[in-house]
Write a structure and sequence with these properties.
- The protein has nine helices and seven strands; from the N terminus they run βαβαβαβααβαβαααβ.
- It is α/β, with parallel strands linked by helices and 255 residues long.
- It has one domain: Rossmann fold (3-Layer(aba) Sandwich), CATH 3.40.50.
- The chain has a seven-stranded parallel β-sheet, sandwiched between helices.
- Helix 6 links the parallel strand 5 and strand 6.
- Helix 3 packs parallel to helix 5.
- The radius of gyration is 17 Å and the shape is globular.
- The mean pLDDT is 96.
- The structure holds nicotinamide-adenine-dinucleotide.
Length: 255
């Protein structure tokens, strides 16, 4: 499916790698001007150089989504550079450092770190994106949850709690703005071949083999397969889709 986002502006957090990178490229391929926001400015700038070399329009912004002031500055910069914001993929997220750890062994610092990025980060982003979108009465936001937002997994309580939270936050915020021309939805990817998963594969090869097996399709997902869903949810083709959490998991949660 080819979308036409000419004249539109997209913001992608965690845009320098994995699903964020694939979505940034897909928005640019569809003609949108793209703000690639990431904590890693160097990688974001590399992607922006690639997009602009291909004739696209993009800027790199350094932003830690856990920091409200940085998120406000990020949205301000998008408006200053491109004049508007039409679509946002709030994607930045992390696994708990150190791999699978049961609740009784996790620390407050671990909790605060993961929650600050994965859940408060989404709240920070939606807050400032919506301030702008509400003024214009138009916009589409896609938040990246996970199958971890639907099921539990031993050793992953903090991560899964944040991803369950993203779904609840998406539903409530979607209801707040549904009558103002703004649609907010979420996606719930299964295990996708990104730098995050490559790192987990290295740390926990046995667990990751198990996870790949329970994806009924028999393989890991590709970032481009997730970007395809983000493009659809961002587009007018999804004009009647509100507060939905779209599962993209190769069959993982079916049985
Ligand atoms: N890979 C998977 O299997 C999988 C499955 C379900 C959900 N998810 C979720 O999808 C999202 C993207 O995952 P991915 O696998 O592409 O990750 P990734 O680690 O491959 O890439 C994430 C990007 O986000 C950036 N980032 C990290 N912390 C940030 C912060 N505080 N502020 C801004 N940017 C930050 C990183 O620099 C990196 O460029 C995450 O929210 C993740 O939880 C991943």
């Amino acid at each position: 499916m080819k979308y036409d986002f000419t004249g539109k502006v997209a913001l992608v957090t965690g845009g320098a790698a994995g699903m964020g990178l694939a979505a940034s490229k897909a928005y640019a391929d569809a003609g949108a001007a793209v703000a690639v926001a990431d904590i890693n400015l160097e990688e974001a700038q590399k992607l922006v150089d690639e997009i602009t070399a291909d004739g696209g329009k993009a800027i790199a912004i350094k932003c830690d989504v856990a920091d409200e002031a940085q998120v406000k500055a990020m949205v301000d910069q998008v408006i200053a550079e491109f004049g508007q914001l039409d679509m946002a993929f709030n994607n930045a997220g992390i696994q708990a450092p150190g791999g699978a750890t049961d609740v009784s062994h996790t620390t407050k610092d671990m909790y605060d770190l993961v929650e600050g990025i994965n859940l408060r980060g989404i709240w920070n982003c939606m807050k400032y994106e919506l301030m702008h979108m509400r003024e214009r009465g138009t916009g589409a936001i896609v938040n990246n949850s996970s199958v971890g937002g639907i099921v539990g997994l031993p050793g992953r309580a903090i991560y899964h709690a944040t991803k369950h939270g993203v779904i609840g936050m998406t539903k409530s915020a979607a209801l707040e703005v549904a009558q103002e021309g703004i649609r907010i939805n979420a996606i719930c990817p299964g295990t996708i071949e990104t730098p995050m998963v490559k790192e987990m594969l290295d740390k926990e090869p046995e667990l990751m083999k198990e996870l790949a097996k329970v994806q009924v399709i028999g393989r890991l997902g590709q970032p481009e397969e997730i970007a395809a869903a983000v493009m659809w949810l961002s587009s007018d083709e999804a004009s009647f889709v509100i507060g939905h959490s779209l599962v993209l998991d190769g069959g993982f949660t079916v049985h």
